[in-house]
Amino acid sequence: MIIKVLILTTAVLIFVTPMTYADAKNLDFENKTTIEILIEDMAVQNVSVSSNAVRSLVDIGEPAVEPLIQALENNNLDIRENSAITLGKIGDKRAVEPLLNLIDDECQEVRIAAEIALGDIGEEHIDLLVTHANNPDKSLSSRKIAIIVLGEYGEKAVPHLIELLSENDDYFTLSGEVRYSLAKIGEPAVDPLIKLLESDDPDVKSSAIKALGDIGDECAIEPLSKALNDESELVRNLAKSNIERIENHNAHFSYVSYGKVPTFYTEDERQEWFSNLEIIVGTSETEMDKYIRPEGSVYSYGCSYDGHISVGIVADSGVNESLMNEIYDIFDQHAQEIGIENVPVLFEYGDIEAGEAIDEEDIVDRNIAVINDDGNVIIYTEDEAYFDKEGNLVIIGNETTQEENGTNKQTPGFTSIMLIIGLLLSARSRK
């Protein structure tokens, strides 16, 4: 009798599953009931089911936009989170404002999904982001995210970011995000930033100098040299230090990328992938030892929430393509052991000063690395810093909180003031 019941249950499940979690090509795209079912399926605790629901809704496109916007207010956090991701992939401008409002959601996973979605929607809706960033009635956190997303849109965003840097009344609260976005855009922002050096406002000039130092374009050296005679001591000092950064080829924003990060349709997919990266990093530990400082030039490695393995290399340490290939082969071998081909690895260069950044002979596990405004990498142990429940970096013994959304739910490119780099979970660093 028990056997019969089990067989019957299995038969029912086999029949129901294709009807409920159908592939997009079998769906009635105009059927609201179908859309509602798929939205409910996004909360199912099965990665393939929730991912298929998102893919199907993306294929449905425009008819699904309004129901998905409404779903951003659903009590179920998985539905809010995956609705945001889906709206980002559909790319309809109607979703921009609701997604910006979602930045204030009580759930961190939902907030991050909103950030990712805004980055996915595309530069054709740049005007909406600019309007939001300039609106003092909007929450500060959502305005900061709007500015950071602008940095993803390249040259088209430069005039708007320059205006935010030089004319916005909330300069002091938004300048870090504006600088970060301009530095991310790079060369197209250099000439407009050089023009800001003529400003009468020393704070505006200071931010322009820092952004030029972040970009590292040598054509900024001559204009910065003129600032060495500025009446403001702060401006003079910043000009001097950032000229040195550029002349010394400070490369903390330089990187070399291997492999390819897969497309994630749900946060569960991303977490599943992240777990695989943890396995790869963990099984590579013994072979990586010889590359770690002081014997080698690697000061950190670990899993990045962006979906790649991050390897931090000391700038100007003589690391060449051959050595990077060696390191990549280590990770690639262990990736293939668990069925992953073309594992993504990002090599990032940073300046690290012995005796200043690391105080212990052997620092292992759960370290946090940040790049400060001077371009130096600082490594904190778990006894020196931690991330609070809101994802902010807290320096122990420091009353202020470094408000960086830099947890292991971090979205790359989505940091402010300091760049959190991949020392997540199983990262290692040695003096």
TrEMBL record:
Domain of life from the UniProt record: Archaea
Regions that span the bilayer: none
GO MF entries: oxidoreductase activity
Protein's name according to its UniProt entry: HEAT repeat domain-containing protein
